[in-house]
Amino acid sequence: MSNIPTAQGIPIPIGGGADEPIPDKKPEKAKDATGSAPSRFYLKMTAGFWRSLQVVGMSLHYLASPRPPNPSFTKTISSTLSKSKGKFTLHFYVPKGYNEAAKTGKKYPAVVNFHGGGFTLGKPTDDARFARFILNTCDAIFVSVDYRLAPEFPFPIAVDDGADALLYLIRNAADLHIDTAKLATSGFSAGGNIAITSPLRLKAHLKSAQNSPPVPDHTIRAIATWYPITDYTLSRAERRATSIRPDQTLPPTLTTLFDTSYLFPPDLDLADPFLSPNKATDEMLAEGIPPNVVFYTCEWDMLLREGEELAQRLGRPPINKDVRYKMIPGVPHGWDKSPDPLRPAASSEELYLECCNYLKEIFERD
Fold it and tell me: Which residues, 6+ apart, have CB-to-CB distance to 146 below 8 Å?
């Protein structure tokens, strides 16, 4: 297996940050985690640099055989839940037979996906290799969300966009040939966070909506989350110290960019459940999380412990979700996005297939 950390296909220098001091006090507000953050303009320029590198890395990632599919079509939609109004795009990957659905009347399950990149990098096509397994194994539509990125659009805009994407698909299911009784979310890294928090955000919206247009009946059956970040009340130094290979974790150069970009304004509460689902109440998780959770973590990842903690909590009373949890041995965070043009990352295809077999089983239940 690859032992080179990557961020959305970009090889990252290893070794930095392993000896950084752990703060005496856990961070409570954004300013506690980010300190004296650079200007938003500087963050925007820095993010632009990393985004350009990401294009190169992911281009190499796409070259390995078998080549991943391209989106079949896109839909650009308007935000409705966010205070920061704007538009974002949904990328649709569709299974065989979809173009005849208008004639046959067939409805398909839909998996709504969120890419990784620290809420700062990444594109909706980044998980196209995973999309191939969703199409072929689950016979489902794969909808990858081009949610708005920080630092231009800090928390909670990505989570709001995720919930808005779900709302759009539910309301337009007939035209899109989607079976609203068979929905799931998926995501990687930061996107793994949104895969968890967007159903929570949608549930909160549905509970509080007064005069909103009615939302048709629907069922989100499952979440498939890959190495998500789930608890911002842990400092990066504390996280690295828990890793058995801190030298294999993403360096402060990158994690600081991610955190200072997304965690804004300075008085942002880091225990907000839409930011840190580990801090959500049992009642909120029991009501807002689907009945089935497929949860993957990486052995060398600084996010392993918080992910493991949330997976175990979701499976215990009083939450009682059906959790299928696996820690992937001997790999760092984001190993599956290796920029190797010759072959997919070791074991990534097997694990994608395993995950999709779980989802297929869930979709086929009465």
Answer: 88, 89, 90, 91, 123, 124
CA–CA distance, 83 with 117 (Å, rounded to integer) = 23
* 4-25 mean pLDDT: 69
Strands 73-78 and 87-93: antiparallel
Sheet of strand 178-188, all strands in order from the earlier edge strand to the far edge: 73-78, 87-93, 141-146, 108-114, 178-188, 220-226, 292-298, 322-328
CB 296 within 8 A of CB 355: yes
Structure confidence by residue, pLDDT tens digits, 255-310: 999 999 999 999 999 999 999 999 999 999 999 999 999 999 999 999 999 999 99
Q: Helix, strand, coil: what percent of the chain each, to 5? A: 40, 15, 40
215: left (phi over 0), alpha (psi -120 to 50) or beta: beta
What pLDDT is recorded for position 14?
61
Output the pTM of the full model.
Answer: 0.96
Burial class (CB in 10 A: 0-12, 13-18, 19+), 247: middle
Q: CA 327, CA 116: separation in Å to the nearest integer?
A: 18
> Each residue of 325-347: pLDDT tens digit?
999 999 999 999 999 999 999 99
Alpha-carbon span 220 to 166, nearest angstrom: 9
C-alpha torsion sign, points 129, 322, 192, 156: positive
Would you tell me which CATH number, out of the four given (2.40.50.100, 3.40.50.1820, 3.30.1360.130, 3.60.140.10), belongs to the domain 6-18+29-364? 3.40.50.1820
**Of the candidates 280, 281, 266, 186, the residue with the CA atom closest to the CA atom of residue 230:** 280
The token duo for 344 is 């997919």
pLDDT value at 15 more than 70: no
